[in-house]
Specification:
Blueprint (H helix, E strand, L loop, with lengths): L26 E5 L6 E5 L3 H4 L5 E5 L1 E3 L3 E6 L5 E11 L2 E7 L9 E4 L4 E8 L5 E7 L5 H8 L25 E4 L11 H9 L3 E7 L22 E5 L1 H12 L4 E4 L1 H14 L5 E5 L14 E5 L6 H10 L1 H13 L10 E4 L1
Parallel strand pairs: 1-17, 3-12, 3-14, 4-11, 14-16
Antiparallel strand pairs: 1-2, 5-6, 5-8, 6-7, 7-10, 8-9, 9-10, 12-13, 13-15, 16-17
Length: 343
């Protein structure tokens, strides 16, 4: 298939700029995997769509406030860093803007000296390998909490008033460069209602890298290369999924990140086992799902790997029709937008 097959026309005003309050008040399109039929609900109605014995798998990764602004030590020139992933200890792969100011050997200061950085190398993609150091009373994470900003996607131009609104209410493991946004709709109260119905909840961790959102620049989708992301499946979650399947109930992933974690492990080991590692799995139409029975996700960018994943699970025609309907019904799109449940 070609990348252009996954294009759809989206009016700019449908790109959500701010999150809704409360979190679970967003609209939710329910899409049938079997026949492509569509119904329109609100996210809090998800309780009614779940059955006792089903399990929801959530990604508990937490977003680093990893966008920092500083100055070049010798000239005072301004620079913006986005910390993408930890290489080792205080050394990180980092996106630098403007890159021409961040040559190997260059030093930068952030937050009036709370943190300093030295560029050591440049990757093939043009990212910088940077070693950070902090004042004696700080570590990288406490420093970022003081001076860092949330790495919101470029299509969000409004300033985020509350950092926690770009975190899920169950986020726990620091390490993502972007939020697993399908989970932003849940409130603690809604999760309690889901549990009270007898639905089980399991957690995986996949630290979301910006490569997930990188545009597909090749004509043939099979030529696109995914970036690698770190994942972990704990023993309790692996056991929960095994029991759910044995009982004939459904495993429903919340978000493409949870989906990619489960299907990566099943693809590698033939089943879900407790493990951790890195995945660069690329799911597009023709992929054979081994774990998923349902998917909760947001509405994704045209020609993105994420809409390709949804098409693989739901069927190409069903997916593109659902997006057409979503535009007609003025759903809100992307990170702070509305939700789709595919069952």
């Amino acid at each position: 298939m070609k990348t252009v097959d996954f294009y759809y026309d989206l009016p700019k005003e449908l790109i959500a700029q701010t999150p809704l309050e409360p979190r679970d008040s967003s609209k939710m399109m329910v899409l049938s995997k079997q026949d492509g039929s569509i119904s329109h609900k609100h996210f809090y109605d998800i309780v009614d769509m779940l059955n006792e014995g089903d399990c929801l798998i959530l990604n508990d990764s937490r977003v680093l406030p990893a966008r920092i602004y500083g100055v070049k030590e010798d000239t005072g020139a301004s620079v913006e860093f986005l910390m993408l992933r930890q290489v080792e200890n205080n050394t990180w792969e980092t996106l630098a803007k403007p890159g021409k100011k961040a040559k190997p050997g260059t030093r930068f200061t952030f937050g009036d000296g709370i943190m300093t950085a030295t560029v050591h190398d440049v990757t093939e993609e043009g990212n910088r390998i940077v070693e950070f150091s902090c004042r004696d009373d700080e570590n990288i994470y406490s420093a970022l909490d003081k001076i860092g900003q949330m790495p919101l996607p470029p299509y969000i131009t409004e300033k985020l008033q509350d950092k926690e609104r770009y975190q899920t209410v169950y986020s726990n493991e620091l390490g993502s460069a972007a939020a697993p946004t399908a989970g932003l709709h849940f409130t603690k109260e809604l999760l309690r209602k889901i549990k009270d119905k007898g639905v089980n909840i399991g957690y995986v961790t996949l630290h979301v890298g910006l490569g997930t959102f990188r545009p597909v620049k090749v004509d043939e989708i099979t030529e696109h290369k995914m970036h690698s992301e770190h994942y972990e499946i704990p023993k309790a979650t692996a056991q929960l999924i095994k029991e759910t399947k044995q009982n004939g109930k459904r495993v429903i992933a919340v978000g493409t990140t949870s989906c990619r974690t489960l299907e990566s492990v099943a693809d590698k080991y033939g089943e879900i086992i407790p493990c951790e590692g890195f995945t660069d799995i690329f799911i597009y139409p023709g992929f054979e799902f081994k774990v998923l029975d349902g998917l909760v996700t947001n509405f994704h960018l045209p020609e993105s790997t994420l809409i390709m994943l949804v098409s693989a699970f739901t069927g190409y025609e069903n997916t593109m029709n659902a997006y057409k309907v979503a535009v007609e019904e003025k759903y809100r799109f992307f990170s702070f937008g509305d939700s789709m449940m595919i069952i």
